[in-house]
Amino acid sequence: MEYDAIIIGAGVGGLFSAFKLTCEGKKVLLLEKQPVPGGFATSFTRKGFCFESSVHCVGGLGRNGELREYLEETGLAKDIEFIELNDFSRAIYPGYDFVSHFDRNILMERLQKHFPQEKQNLADFFLRLDRLYAQFDAFYKPGLPGWIKLVISPWFYPEVLRASSSTVDEYIGDQIKDQKAKSILNDFWGFLGLPPSRLSALYFFLAFKSYYYEGTSYIKGGFMNLFKVMVERIKQSGSEVKFNTTVKKIVTNNGKSVKSVVTDNLEEFRAKVVISNANSIDTLTEMLDSEPVKNKYRRKLSGMEKSISAIQVYLALKKPAREFGMSNAMFCLNTTYDHDLSYHYALEGDCDHCGLLITDHAQVDPTLTPKDKGSLLIVALDAFSNWEGLKLEEYKAKKNAVAKKLISRLDNLLPGLAENIEFMEVATPLTMQRYGSAPEGAIYGFAQTVSQSGNNRLSQKTAVEGLYLTGAWTFPGGGVFGCFCSGMEAAEFALRQLK
Hints:
By secondary structure, the chain is of the alpha/beta class. The protein has helices at 12-23, 66-73, 104-114, 119-139, 146-156, 158-164, 168-173, 179-185, 201-212, 224-236, 280-287, 291-301, 339-348, 361-364, 392-413, 429-436, 480-498, and strands spanning 2-8, 28-31, 43-46, 49-52, 58-59, 82-84, 89-93, 96-99, 216-219, 240-242, 247-252, 258-263, 268-276, 309-317, 330-333, 356-359, 374-382, 421-427, 467-469. Helix 1 runs parallel beside helix 10 (224-236).
């Protein structure tokens, strides 16, 4: 059977690519190896408790956000219910306890109140961010060819140029000097997987914009509700979705253009365009049938740095977490203001000192748990190397030991929590590799260093005509909002190809 486009993988990027193409009247086949959509952003239910696999909150989903606007324009918003978020996150440091707000002005005022000596510097810095976002929007508007925009960047887009060539530390350090103020301002670096000394300023502040300039919200019943609605709409448009189906091979015309895909049960489906939401390494170095093309990508991708992984502990509680002191829906727990040191703790698997991200989804949406009960998600960044090579019994023992240490730390912050755990589940970097087919459990794809971000990041276009990429490994990067943007971009390339 022949289609206009085949999408490999129903993660966020693949879903939005498939949805956009069906909205444009194209016949699409969406193939997903798991029984449910969403990839790393999926939800799962255990004994009446609904857990988000990894989603904490999603940038751009506020009333003025780009993602929210798209859901409303396409009618998807009519079939889901939004829960608006404001004072969502609490950053806890030695000596400082800071509650952020998903509003640019309120966030700035709270930072100024905590750090009065930086009041003017903070005001100037947020004005600088305003300029960055205005210039970025102008840079990516259709019009002038890209090469001309690059040539005139020093005069017309200087903030974009500066952010593209700077780390977060370098970009912030130009204006803000207080180390504690800087640490709290860039507290959510963990969402992007690198400390500010190595993290691309451009990607960090585009993510920052999606939260603090556009706001965010939660989807009642879990983000899986959105993914289910999207799948249903794709089917209603005359396209097809097949779960429990793994693509093993992308067939090409001598490595020049795509021809078809072959699944694990040897079914072959033909299409003019293929968009892969599988990880880009496997797509380009394993699934393609052309050895010369695969070898070319092996050389290119072998030198690229992968992101860190994570360990996640899902807790079902006998009582709501608020009863133990969970005053906000998310806590960012830090043992130091030195984010490089926090990252080092994560790489070393030091679960006594690494940063923790604790999310109480049930506080936002009580329907996620049985009545009068609660749940928590604990996340700590972790390196794949800390887990690989373990025998099964060693792996099980380490998984339980690490989970107990993280729970013990949380119990110190929320007394009484440990004795009110109904059950728990634990995901490790090996889980990320197995479930998400992520090499080395890399939850953010390629690391968002300056040399691997922006125009330097792996493009949606490939060397094979009609083959495009989407997801965290490609432009612009990881996270739900990043993968949404990636999926839309890949669909645009596909539409041009189909025309």
